[in-house]
Model the fold of this input.
Amino acid sequence: MSGDVLTQAEVESLLQAMAAGGGEPAPPIAPVQAAAAPAAAAPPPPPKTREKVTPYDFKRPERVGKEQMRALQTLHEGFGRNFGAALSAMLRSIVEVKLTSVDQLTYSEFVFSLENPTCFNLLKAEPLEGNLILDISPSILFPIIDRMLGGGREGGPLARRPLTEIELRLVSRITNLFLNELRHAWENVLDLKLEVVRVESNPQLVQIVPPNEVVVLISFELTLGDLRGMMNMCIPYNSIERIGTKLSANSWSAYGARPATADSVKQLSSTVATSLVEVRVRLAQTQISTGEMIGLRVGDIITTQKDVRSPLVVSVEGVPKFRAFAGVFKGHRAIRIDGIIQDPVEALGE
Done:
């Protein structure tokens, strides 16, 4: 044997050892191994690293990409803040709307996770294909209806029944407000024309897609005082499949960093200028007994300690803003603004 050249017998011995399951080579190999012994010992092979295994459920395929999911989350976080502000203004009470999750699941899982009865709104969102779903939990819907009818902050017993015709009309004000804010939130992606097709109490009676079809579930938590409840919007995958390229997280970050233009400032100023606000003028304040209040008749005069020459406080949306004097203008009672209040807290004590 010369150098590293193996004889035919040694080659056949190696092949037999491999066929036998990787056992020790036959004796003819020994001289080669002995000759290689003086050489430096080979380093031990590095330990094998375990590859990370990601579980995949074929029953719940993730068809919406992560980038699109992040874009939907960013979009509806801003929508939740705007809808909460609009709903608070309508109810004249603080309502917090917080985005809790944006998930993918099958339509059947979504339907069977809802309460029954519930407020199940079937929406049309042109030019998107198919229909969307807006579900409002009765645990927060009935307290909102109670608030719209003049109720207080205390919640009564939760009703487990379908909505009446009068309640459906009141709920339409909430859904119209929701659709209006949703339209504004989506206007940078798509100009949606939203409307409610019908309202159902049993979610299992409405099937907009096959049970195993993937949907995107966007969940909001509404907080009214000590009461909490969920509002869910279901978007089928086939509705947003063709606009997937427009749902890009990069476009949202670029939009948020865009500087104000002259047109946007003009549009914002025009919107603010036409907004309706509540203005109140506090003429004076005093203290009287309950007996005196019960005995008041038309034409009675209530005396106060306020000087007629001191200015009145004008409040805008409950916040003191101006000082003014009372008077008459063209036969009507009026006030004349005399100055701006710099410290609203100090003005409240006057």
About this structure: The chain is about 35% helix and 25% strand. The radius of gyration is 36 Å. Residues 28-39, 252-257 have pLDDT under 50 and may be disordered. The longest helix spans residues 66-91.
